[in-house]
Specification:
Number of domains: 1
CATH topology: hypothetical protein PF0899 fold
Shape: elongated
Number of strands: 7
Distance between the termini: 19 Å
Order of helices and strands: EHEHEEEEE
Helix content: 10-25%
Radius of gyration: 17 Å
Length: 125
């Protein structure tokens, strides 16, 4: 499993840059495996990552053109976010970036998980 963590302290990366970094990673892994073609990729993207899955898919299709991943199926799985609520002092799960605490309705939430983008699986031939 290979993971790209998006730091909340840095500006959000643009989906085109993410797609290009993903292609660099995929091509390097395919070469290391002795594969000539990538047929399928599975990404996990946290709901707190600020990554637009639709825009990333579009950027991936462009970045993959002419590469070993050209025509590969890109499966994107969204994963829930976990946060710590400063109002009720509890760890809670949220399913959208702008959701309040499901326990108390508070909005002072600190991300604990679900802010990552992870290459979970890669099929090659």
């Amino acid at each position: 499993m290979i993971q790209l963590r998006l730091s909340p302290g840095l500006p959000a990366m643009h989906e085109v840059s993410l797609a290009m970094a993903l292609m660099d990673l995929v091509c390097a892994q395919a070469t290391a495996a002795g594969a000539s073609r990538v047929t399928r990729l599975v990404l996990e993207i946290g709901v707190l990552s600020h990554v637009d899955a639709h825009a990333l898919r579009f950027a991936f299709d462009s970045a993959a053109s002419g590469s070993p991943a050209d025509g590969a199926v890109l499966e994107i799985r969204q994963i829930v976010g976990t946060t710590y609520c400063l109002d009720c002092e509890a760890s809670v799960t949220i399913i959208t970036r702008d959701a309040p605490c499901p326990r108390c309705g508070g909005v002072k939430l600190l991300a604990q998980g679900g802010d990552e983008m992870r290459l979970k699986e890669m099929e090659v031939v």
